[in-house]
Amino acid sequence: MQTWAKRGLQTAFVTGGLLMLGTGIASAQENVDPDAAPPAVDVAAAVPIKADQNKLATPVREVTLPKVDRTISTDRVTGVVPTRTAAPVANPLVRQTGERLQGTPLQNVVRGNTIQAHVDVPINICGNAIAVLANTQATGDCTQTTHRDGTIVTDGAGQALAGNVVAVNHILPVQITGNAIAAGGNATTDTDARQVSTTGGDITTNGDKGAISGNVIAEHGATPVQITGNGVGAAGIAEAASTADTFASSEGDVLTSGKSSSISGNAVPVALAPLAEVNGNAAAAAGNATTDSVQAGTAYAGGKTDTNGDPATLAGNVVAPALSGPVTVDDNAAAAGGNATAVSETTNESVAGGIIHTFGDGSTASGNIAGAPIALPTSAGGNGASIVGNALTDHANESYSKSGGEAYTVGDHSVLSGNIADVPPATAIDVCGNGATLAGQAAGTCENDVKSITSGYQGTTGTDSVISGNIASTPVATPAEVYGLAATLGGQATGSADEVKEVRSSGTPNTEDDHGTVSSNIVTAPTAAAPQVFAVTAGLVGNTFSDTSNDTTVKAGNNPHATGKKGSVAGNIVQVPTSTPAQVFADGVTLVGNNVTKGDNATDMKAGGDAITTGEKGSIAGNAVSAPVATGTQVLGWSVGGGSNVDAFSTNSLSSVAGGDVNSNGDQGAVSGNLIGAQPAVLPAVPGNTVAAAGITNSDVVSDTKVISGDDSYTSADDASVSGNLVHVPANAFAGVYADAVAVAGNATTVTDKSSYTQAGGEMLTEGSGPLTAREMTVPVEAAAKLARIPVEVVGQAVTEGADNDTQLTGEDAGVLRATQLKGLELPKGVDSLLKANQVPAFHGLDSKLPVNKLPNPADLTALTGQLPIAGLPTSGLPTSKLPTSKLPLAQERSSLPLNGGTGSITPNVQGLPLAQVLQAAQGLIPAGATGRSLPSLPVTAPALPVPVQLPALPTERSLPTLPVNGPASLSGVNLNPTQGLAPKADERALPQLPLNNPALAMIDPANLFQTVTGSL
């Protein structure tokens, strides 16, 4: 580096006032007493620079850039910052002043208060190659190691305004290695680089029996930056092979105390450990760029925090923000009129903060904890994009991020103490394995394994206290990502990804008290969400392909636990957990082209958990309000094509659970142990639909979903007042539009096997004695509607196949779980098979074609035992040897089938089937002039009907009653309405009717509609 530049930077530091603030300008080799008290002010900055093996080529010549191994520092360190741990270096001015004050009345003027700010920026530049209208090649093997100690030990016990610490220990290493840039030439590099940068240390002080003493504000930061293994070719050729490893650490615990003090022992630890990376990318414009890179990054910041506010006032409190997570742009390829290929592996670990421990016994406004840990790993990797070119990627990413940790405190015998407030969002943002092209080829391939975790267990107590031991927590776990997509306009695009992801926020909130007042209450709102779009393809005059799998686990919060025995407004729980996935995957849309998308999904989501509390012998204690919300929004397995071939294949397993059991106890209490809940479970199901216009589309889906909101509730209230009551509103809604096919001058086929389970609430149990005690009230709300397996054909062929099994459980729904489908009339399939004027539906168990010139085979009647009124059938002419075991009375004369409403000896109703009304409705179908004998009479001597007779299917166990024929809808002249007049059995709630005559459904072909309604609606 030029001498003038170095001197300029040094001058800037000095003129910035750092020297006058006590900056230690001394050699690191200076002898310093390690037991000496820390300086009052210690501010230092260093920029160690190491540059080596870099190449630059121009038409004039190729040069190797000068080697640099120097440090620009306010410490005047002439080389790399020493790797050994050194004692803090005091400014000579400060040290001399302190020596002169010894033995004078002013010797304690500093009182152990310390301001320390250390910022180091190590820079490693190695193995880069730059070619401009020329060729060059670089190789590099470089290592940089730096360290600065930031340990602080001071004391303010028994003093006022003593032992306070403000500290910054920050390391920001920068690694720029193994990059190749070619402009009108060739640039090649092969580099192996390592960088290790550490700082920090424990901060120890004390404020016991002090006033405004022993307080700590400390930042520990490790924020490495990597720019490695990139290749850029502009009318040239760039090739980069690189390995890069960065380790950055600013670790250290914060240890202090504020026992028997005022405004002492408080701590604000700030831990920062994000990484920033731009590695292994390839960009080509009218040229070629190729990268093959392996990079690793590690950042550790902060540590545990331990303090005490027992007994004290405004002491031992902790406020702890933390941030972790790499932000990476790795292994992407972009080409414009060229070729770009990127292959890379990335491994990152980021940890910020740790366990928090404090006390607030016998205190006022002490021992409280406020945490705000954030884990935010963000990556864009393995994506390929091209314009009239080729872009290919192959990327593997492994990332672990953690912020914060467990929190413990105590608020017994105190006021406004031992409370915990926690805001711990955990997320993961990924754009991975996508391919997009315009008149070219692009392929994005990605393997992604990510963990993002924040906070942990939270425990406190509030015995014999006031407004103490309470917990407020808002855990948020939300991965948000787009991966495995492919899009093209006049080209070919591939997007493929294999992802495993775990996102967890917070843990169990646990608090206890006896004889507390407004204490040990919990308010928590855990949120689990998953906005994810993957394995989606779209093309316009092109070909697209995706093969993507997803394995995601999302968990927010855990089981809240509280006690409020013998308390007042104590031990209450308010829990509002939400689990709301929003996933779009395995869908393909193409206009003129070929499209194949394959998506496999396994998602497990949980928000909150079982809420357990007690309010025995308490007043307004041990109550619980639980309002979980669980949904299962997914759009999957759609294939839509125009003049194209589109195939969509998907498997799906989703579990979305919010809340759980709620247990309490209000024995001998007043307004205690009451449980109030609202538990909506909503499942919109839209898998496996397909649309073909002058093309061929196929959808093949296997889907299994589980959506659960809340569960059982138990409480008791013996010898209590206004206690142990249960009030619940379980709401269960299922809506499905799936397995439908639309063909317009094309072929559309869907094969969809779907199972779903939705549960809202559960059993309720309470018992007890006393006024307004142990009462139950539940208001279940349930709705279900489907439009499934509907083929719509306009000069085309639409095929719908598969099966479904949909189950709803709402509140205390007893017995076998009821399937949502309606059961009843089963009409023949196909437009040409509609009932003719001389046909009636057939019974299950009989041959579909019932000849009337002989009785049916008795063996066929055994399945109808207890359903068909066999005793009323005429048996004249039937050989006795053919009779069933139960004897049938012989008719003395044949029974006619009159037109006046009579039915002869036939019982007019079969398990709710109004047969008389069916026959009466058929009267209007008889040609004019028909007499009372126009229809053939039973039994065997009557002529056969011109066409087979089909009778309606008998209902099965737990089916809804069969449908009357007096509705307004008509089919081939027979009045039929499959929903009008539907009524539940005594032990079932009614399902809503589908308004088939609604204008919105007016355009649906009745034949196809009835074909799919059967056993599905």
Automatic annotation (TrEMBL):
Residues 1-28 form the signal peptide. Coiled coil: none annotated. It comes from Lentzea cavernae. InterPro entries: ChpA-H. This is Chaplin domain-containing protein. Residues 494-517 are annotated as: Disordered. The keyword Ion transport does not apply. Keywords: Amyloid, Cell adhesion, Cell wall, Secreted, Signal. Residues 109-136 form the Chaplin domain.
